[in-house]
Design goal:
Helix content is about 40%, strand content about 20%. It has about 500 residues and is of the alpha/beta class. It folds into 4 domains: about 220 residues, Rossmann fold (3-Layer(aba) Sandwich); about 90 residues, Rossmann fold (3-Layer(aba) Sandwich), CATH 3.40.50.1100; about 80 residues, Alpha-Beta Plaits (2-Layer Sandwich); about 80 residues, ACT domain (Alpha-Beta Plaits), CATH 3.30.70.260.
Amino acid sequence: MSDLYLAAIEQARVYDVAIESPLELAPKLSARLHNEVLFKREDLQPVFSFKLRGAYNKISQLTEDERNRGVICASAGNHAQGVALASHRLGIKAIIVMPRTTPEIKVSAVERMGASVVLFGDSYSDASEHAAALCTENGMTFIHPYDDPMVIAGQGTIGEELLRQTPKDLDAVFVPIGGGGLIAGVAVYLKHYSPATKIIGVEPVDSAAMHDSIRAGKRITLDQVGIFADGVAVKKVGEHTFDLTREYVDDILLVDTDEICAAIKDIYEDNRTIVEPAGALAVAGLKQYVREHKIRGEVLAAINSGANMNFDRLRHVAERTEMGEGKEALFAVTIPERPGAFLEFCKVIGDRNITEFNYRLSSRDKAHVFVGISTREEEESEQICKNMESSGLPVLNLHDNELAKLHIRHMVGGHSPLVENEVLYRFEFPERPGALLEFLTRAGGRWNISLFHYRNHGAAFGRVLAGVEVPPKDRPDFEAYLLALGYPFVNESDNPAYVNFLK
């Protein structure tokens, strides 16, 4: 099987539209990590992503009859632009089915390349099903974003370039994973010509479809995927890509949102480019690998896979970067409600800078404080916890508490003696007109909303925190309503950050 892929990669037609992206030294990150770190700059492609390689390679090899009937795909992002550009260059009709939640900037980018856009559904799954139906109805060729040998071969040309561009042996190459097309193509090529090079995939911890599938020994389907790194938000990896990854990839690392945000900043500081979250996955994984294995003096390459970043997401990235770098720690601390207590609390913190301090009087004997503290390294937060506990201050480390980082830090001080039987849920709403109205309409006025917090991060889905007064006897009906609503949700009623500040 590998011989067929090697031949397909070496004969792939990608350079009619793609450039041979540079492999650049990242001097600042290299110095900090004590390794030679190289960035493979796929963010410099004409559509700011590697995706046009596979799309063009597939479309360019269609028969004359297939070209006449046109092509179709489902995508909310980089694959859509790759298919649109490839089809335009070859003079082929293209239909791109995109979720209605797709930001206008991405829809416009595809339309400018001459493709027809059909907006359908709230998710990629909805769009994909509709694209399959249109494909059958119109006799078009479906261009899969990752699970197609010709698409995989197109992406594999990156591996060919890596070997050609570095005079040294690469100790490890870090590759982002969504459906698996990129890592499958790169791995099968590098493992043949440079078997000593480790191929390490990187996925978000909340979109770990390939990692979990490899562990299970078969392809599994995730119930839901994280929305931050939307370029790799895939519930089920491909059949071809799973087989190739299982055979040729050495390891798969999982990184969280904070680590991704810190990697976006690292890339910016070295080459002044702002990559999308999925485009920073490889660098985030590289940093984790160096830290955990104490690697020094090696040559490490990371594929910066794309730079289609919505500008309004930068605020969220900036907020989370400090925690991803281990330079900020968040705590919930209980201090006595009396004069001088805050001064004593500050003495425990010492000469560290307080980045955030939120509190509201909730009783006459104690106060719950939400505090951010500057740290020099991640391990320092544990020492701060110990110092507070030894001073008799109950403390909760919120470093891994997503509810606290997304919502609570912006809402502290919300205790209300008027609220009864409140339950708290975190939702993901499709970012489209009418979503909130639909939520309220289906509730039918049966339950009172006692808390509502919404923050948009420039993604297809907005994050919502809602408190609802639901008497115990109504809980079964309320849970049935949530299931019927169809929005992903998490019950946060017992979350300690909620209990301390809002309940």
